[in-house]
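Check out one such.
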Amino acid sequence: MRRYVTIFICLLFLVGCGKQKQSNSNRNISNESTNSNVVDTNTNTSSDTNSSSNSNTSSNTNENEDPNVGKYVVHYYLFHLSTCPHCQEEIEWLQSIEKDYPYLQIHYYEVGSTNPENAELVTKVRDALKITGENRDYVPLAIIGNEYYIGFADSKERKFIRTIKEQSTQKYCDIVDTILKDGDVEDCLKQNGRE
C-alpha cells in the first residue's frame, strides 16, 4: 500500500504542481516582472509580430536550422504559483535562456494573488484554447505563440525550445493579446488553425 501512495504522489508532481481553486475570488493572478525581456502584462497593448532587426546569434542555432528563426517575436505567457516547485523551475529556466533568444518576450502571471483582471484573463485563455479535463487548472501553464503546455520538467525543455523557434518563423495570432484587447478570439483561432 505504501508503494502505491508513493507512486501516486510522484504522478501528481509529474502532472502539475497543484490546481487553482474554481472560484474567481480564489483564482486571482498578478503580474511579476523580473528582467529585461519580460513585458509588463498589465500595460502591454502591442501585438508585436516583427522582431527587431537583431538576428539570433545564440549558440543554440545550428547549420540545419530554419533561416527564418527569430524573424517574428514570440510571446511566452507563464501562469504560475509562487509555492509550486515546478513553476519555480520553469521561471529559473526561462531566466537562463531569455538572453539566447532576443525575439522571445516573456510574460509572468502569478496565480493566487489579488489581481482579478488576470484571473479573468487566464479563465478566458483556458476557455478559448478549450483546455478541459482534470488538468485544466494545473500550473504552470505556458502559452508559447499559439501552443500551450501544462506542467514543467527538464524533459520538456527541448520541446519548449523547438516551439519557441518554430513560432518565431511565422506570423501567428497571439490569443492572449487578442483577449487582452477584446479582439475576435474565434478569428484568431481560425488564423492559427485551431478551429
About this structure: Residues 15-42+68-76+117-195 form one domain.
